Amino acid sequence: MSHTSEDFDTSIPxxxxxxxxxxxxxxxxxxxxxxVNARATDYDAEFLAERLHGRFTSFLTGDGRExxxxxxxxxxxxxxxxxxxxxxxxxxLALESEVTEWVREAVEEELLRRG
Length: 115
What we know:
Blueprint: H1 32-39, H2 41-61, H3 63-114
Helix pairs in contact: 2-3
């Protein structure tokens, strides 16, 4: 989700409106709208909180949910792969000693049968 400068509320000042790093002579003074907004801080805080709540809800039901699901799938796949490798290794170690014993018993039985 990409936002252009037109998507943002221009009544909210950004850092570049008041500061230009290394060149204070180029910094712009906050506009009149910033001064007007300072008087309505309580209303603005509620309004901004509602807008942020709406944006978070929208994000978490859209792109955010897809991102979370994708990361969960990747984590499950990675963990499943690790688990399969662990179980395979354990089974191989257990079978190694068992197969050796089975072969020894089969050879002894065959020698007894022939002998």
